[in-house]
Amino acid sequence: MEIVMAKSLLNANTQIAEGNRSLFDGAGVYVVNLLGSPGAGKTTLLEAMLPGIKERLRPAVIEGDLNTSRDADRIAGIGVPSVQINTGGGCHLDANMVMATLPSIELGEIELLFIENVGNLVCTASFALGEHLRVVVLSVTEGDDKVEKYLSMFRKADAVVLNKADLLPYIDFDVERVRSDLERLGSQAPIFRLSARTGEGLDLFVEWLLGRRAKDHPERARNRSK
Ligand SMILES: Nc1nc2c(ncn2[C@@H]2O[C@H](COP(=O)(O)OP(=O)(O)O)[C@@H](O)[C@H]2O)c(=O)[nH]1
Ligand SMILES: [Mg+2]
User: Fold this and answer.
1) 119: CA distance to ligand 2 center in Å?
2) Which of 106, 115, 137, 154 is least buried, going by the fewest C-beta atoms within 10 A?
3) Per-residue pLDDT reduced to its tens digit, 31-81
4) pLDDT reported for residue 118
5) Using a 6 Å cutoff on CB, does residue 33 contact ligand 1?
């Protein structure tokens, strides 16, 4: 019984996510679901990337959090439109929450939308939001064994950001282990080793991200880029 209910819940979510995706596609908005543990550096990564990105495209951010609007405030602080979704304790965003937020975002005015999911490597993996790309942020302080432990999350990742690379000299973290664990999963996801704090390695990731947008939406990327 529980399994049947969980399945129909996920099916309903998938349908709403497909509706969101059509809206995004119709408006020419490329959407990135940013996932990872609490404290992995998702918001810091956005703060580091967005000043450069907004010189080239019009971005916006949906921030998912259990209770506060702290992350949305941080994004607004760098002059990028941001909307907060509070899940009221729920451990993941779902497509319905994103749909309910869309009236407060001018889709016609933006080209790139980041959705920072609730910090969690488990249930966030199961709920599509209508995104084009899934990026998992794994910080080196979390340990190099996480790919094997959170298979579903990493299997669905289109890219893995290994954040806090500035701390690598101080801790035991085997980057090759992450690479080989991903390969064993059959994942094609590129790994971007970077530091959102120092900016080391950030440009490569941003260029890859904007390149994926141009590849997935060639017409719109050409017509709507400034
Ligand atoms: N040393 C270091 N600290 C970082 C880096 N990125 C984020 N942090 C710190 O990690 C903590 C959590 O970052 P935050 O962006 O709020 O994580 P989130 O919960 O994933 O959004 C903060 O204290 C950040 O300053 C990094 O690249 N290097
Ligand atoms: Mg955050």
Assistant:
1) 7
2) 106
3) 999 999 999 999 999 999 999 999 999 999 999 999 999 999 999 999 999
4) 95
5) no
User: Of 165, 171, 113, which Cα lies nearest the Cα of 139?
Assistant: 165
Q: How far is the CA of 35 from the centre of ligand 1 (A)?
A: 14
pTM summary value: 0.94
Residue 193 identity (one-letter amino acid): R
Query: What 3-state class would DSSP assign to 100?
Result: helix
Token pair 């889709």 is found at: 107
Using CB atoms within 10 Å of the CB of residue 126, give its burial: 0 to 12 exposed, 13 to 18 middle, 19+ buried: middle
Dihedral, CA of residue 205, residue 211, residue 18 and residue 159, to nearest 10: -30
Six token digits for residue 84: 């907060």
The answer to whether the CB of 95 falls within 8 A of the CB of 17 is: yes
- Gap between the Cα atoms of 184 and 39, Å rounded: 27
Residues 212, 57: Cα–Cα separation, whole Å: 14
* Mean residue pLDDT across the chain: 93
Separation CA 9–CA 55 (nearest Å): 40
